[in-house]
Amino acid sequence: MGKKRSGGGLSPTQQAAKFLGVSVLAGAVLAGIALPAVGALGLAAKGSVEGFDEIPANLKQPPLSQRTTILDNKGGAIATVYSRDRTVVPLKDISPYMQKALVAIEDSRFYEHGAVDLKGILRAINENAQSGGVTQGASTLTQQYVKNVFMEEAGDDPTKLAQATQQTIGRKIRELKYAIQLEDKLGKKRILANYLNITYFGEQAYGVEAAAQRYFSKSAKNLTMEESAMLAGIVQSPSRYDPVNDEEEATKRRNVVLQRMAETHDISQDDADRAKEKPLGLKISKPQNGCITAVKGAGFFCDYVREVFLTDPVFGKTKEARAKLWNRGGLRVQTTLDPQTQESVQASIKDHVYQTDKVATAATFVEPGTGKILGMGQSKPYGFGKNETQINYSVDRKMSGSNYGFPTGSTFKPFLAAAALEQGTPVTKSYPAPYRMPYPKSVQTCSGKPWVNNGGFTVENENESEVGPYALEEAMAKSINTYFVQMIGETGMCPVMDMADKLGVVQGNGDKLPEVPAIALGSKGISPLTMASAYAAFANRGTYCTPVAIESITAPGDKSLPVPKSSCSRAMTTKTADSINTLLSGVIDSGTGREAGLTDRANAGKTGTTDSRKNAWFVGYTPNLSGAVWVGSALQNVEMENITIGGQYQPKVFGGQVPGPIWKDVMVGALSGKPSPGFNLIDIPDPEQDRDKGRDRDQDEDPDQGDGSPGSKGKSPWPGISLPPGVIGGGNGHGGGHR
Fold it and tell me: Which of 21, 165, 554, 611 sits a CA distance of 20 to 30 A from 350?
């Protein structure tokens, strides 16, 4: 609803009484008389002040709330956000017609009188009484500016706004005193410029620049005579004279302003008459506010930037302080988003997963060594309509993401392998790894109290032909579940917890991972951003960098604000990282991730598919880009078998089939024209045993294989640990695993 300047709606008699009261106060003020706390004027009444001399000496003028522009790392605009759509401009960038029109209709003697215009008060009383309405106000432009300052300070707080506009003698006295002060301090030109920048013009437009853009799609400096008259006429009552909703009323009001401009000799009568015959000539620009308007599908990244600002203490010690700074706006936020990467993310998502599909995908890409988020997108667009969402599937709940993240399946296995290697486990380590086996009887935890398999729970591989022994390289390539359960049994939980901490791996709800062996197979929900950032540490030869989204922020006046910095720390030795890079290169060369492999540069990655196929992942990287792609149902209620995704029928979804090609296409586009560095790979000796360990990977990925036989009917083998639906697929307690 449009805002209406106070003072309208009173009868001529009421207006006369009000103006006479103002004139009495004005006379007292100009005479320098301190008004008493009690007496005939009743200044001690609610809403008043105790006396003129006791009003604070200086008017607090808050910085005007303005638009904030969010930019990509090349300076291109992503989105504009604001609590109030305003762009402050100097008087030289405001049309002279606009300046004259505003003065003519609001305060024609502005340049002749002081802060209070007694002659204007008497004239307004007379003309308003004769017209039977309110065609002219009694307040000077300076007084109106002071009132707008009160309203700006109140913001959107209804109580404070009511106090700022209440019709009391006390408020009027404050207004008068500050008007006198500002006339002396600022001068007429500054006051006019400030007024034109602060006042409300309706249709969410604050200040003349935003109004010119909203109604005429042009800058304030290019406003014509009749356009200026229309805008000046809106100020008295933005709702009544709204040209969008009532063009006829707005035209009448514009013509009143034109006539007034002629009477004050700002324009000739002939010019006014010709202008009155012209249509309004509106060229409306709809408000472009918020992350919903972001380009290149960057709405979720835009929202993430906002969440960073509102939650990071670098922008203010309290939540309220950060929100106030954000709402005040006027910022230029240069982000880390790379337009080439972001365009590639969106193009790949569009090709592989449709907005209307039963499942969704989310993809996030970061730069190893810096933590910079270069791309972020998902198939369900940012919005409020059907098949749209405001939940960012790529991030944790505290950043407006999913409540728990998504179970990661076998993409967690490299974290376990890194922890084991850090403990001295050789990269050639072999385990019997049968097709099916019980979980270890006990697994050591950080507390010293071991986890015990009291329920006799078991784990199995994807296919019956997958029977060990296996060495680590082949076990990683084929994603052998029983191998990694044996590894966590020998390594213990604490080294894995320590590695997860060093890699920033937490659950989507912010909680630390539980100390249960099933985490080795990706049973817990984690966000794509967390996974992409953790894998980036492998690409960066063992150094983990926290993700960052903001490069720099410039506030009004070209003032630079501090921004969060990525914190980099060593998570593992370079030898361990090089070993993991070698192992995960094998996943793409000859393992479950063959469909994701890049042919023109070094790359590595891991697939993951959880039980009941409710989640499929591919997390991979080159030395200069790391990315995670998740496919599944946000509600975890779709089993991806016999399903069509992106127009392609899928008998059974695997991490290497749907997420893998999405990742591959993103990488191809994002890295086109970019350097192609290599990994520091290690030599892993061939296993001593040379035996057939089952079919090749094309057969292993055959959707007709794998029995998924029932075991404990989905019962959690870990008392007190709540698992997402479908995490223990087939009821065998293997916690997701798969490819």
Answer: 611
Q: Residue 358: pLDDT band by 50, 70, 90 thresholds?
A: very high
Q: What is the dihedral of CA 47, 50, 54, 57, to 10 degrees?
A: 20
Per-residue pLDDT tens digits for 145-189: 998 888 888 777 777 777 777 777 777 788 888 888 888 888 899
pTM of the model: 0.80
Q: Are strands 332-335 and 68-71 parallel, antiparallel or unpaired?
A: parallel
Instruction: Give φ, ψ of 360 to 5 degrees.
Output: -130, 170
Tokens representing residue 641 in the block: 């078998």
Q: How far is CA 195 from CA 88, 167, 222, in A?
A: 11, 21, 19
- Please tell me the predicted confidence (pLDDT) of residue 359: 98
49, pLDDT greater than 90: no
Contact indicator for 492, 445 with CB cutoff of 8 Å? yes
The structure tokens 């002279």 sit at 96
pLDDT attached to residue 733: 37
Tokens 């509102």 sit on residue: 310
> Which tokens sit at 425?
């486990």
Q: Which residues of 96-131 are buried (b: 16+ CB within 10 A; e: fewer)?
A: ebbbbbbbbbbbbebeebebbbeebbebbbeebeee
Retrieve residue 296's tokens: 């290149």
- Give the three-class secondary structure for 604: strand
Closest residue by Cα to residue 381 from 308, 298, 289 = 298
39-66: burial string, b at 16+ Cβ within 10 Å, e else: eebebeeeebbebbeebeeebebeebbb
Partners of 553 in the beta sheet? 333, 561
Mean pLDDT, rounded, of the chain: 85
CA distances from 466 to 462, 474, 490, 574, 693 (A): 7, 11, 21, 32, 6
Distance CA 282, CA 224 (A): 12
Q: Which stretches of 577-668 are assigned E, i.e. beta strand?
A: 604-609, 615-622, 625-632, 641-645, 648-652
- Helix (H, G, I), strand (E, B), or coil: what is residue 546? coil
Helix (H) or strand (E) holding 344: helix 339-352
Residue 607 sits at φ, ψ, to 5 deg, of: -90, 160
Tens-digit pLDDT profile for residues 309-325: 999 999 999 999 999 99
Peptide bond before residue 469 is cis, with ω within 30 degrees of 0: yes
Provide DSSP, 267-293.
S-HHHHHHHHTS-----------SGGG
CA dihedral of 73, 76, 77, 78, whole degrees rounded to 10: -50
As separate numbers, helices (DSSP H) first and strands (DSSP E) second, the chain gives 22, 22
DSSP state of 205: B
- Residue 32 above 80 pLDDT? no
The tens digit of pLDDT for each residue in 214-245 reads 999 999 999 999 999 999 999 999 999 999 99
107: left (phi over 0), alpha (psi -120 to 50) or beta: beta
Exposed / middle / buried, residue 9 (Cβ in 10 Å: 0-12, 13-18, 19+): exposed
Rounded to an integer, the average pLDDT of 613-638 is 97
Cα four-point dihedral sign 10, 12, 16, 22: positive
Kindly state the greatest CA–CA separation across the chain: 108
Residue 707: pLDDT band (50, 70, 90) is very low
SS3 620: strand
Helices (H), 503-568: 528-539
Express each pLDDT in 67-97 by its tens digit: 999 999 999 999 999 988 999 999 999 999 9
Single out the residue of 352, 734, 691, 226 nearest to residue 520, CA to CA: 734
The Cα–Cα gap between 356 and 387 comes to 6
CA-based nearest residue to 739, from 537, 432, 475, 418: 475
> Can you read off the two tokens belonging to residue 482?
């029983």
Task: Please state, in angstroms and rounded to a whole number, the distance separating the CA atoms of residues 424 and 421.
Answer: 5
User: For helices 247-263 and 96-106, what crossing angle results, to 10°?
Assistant: 90
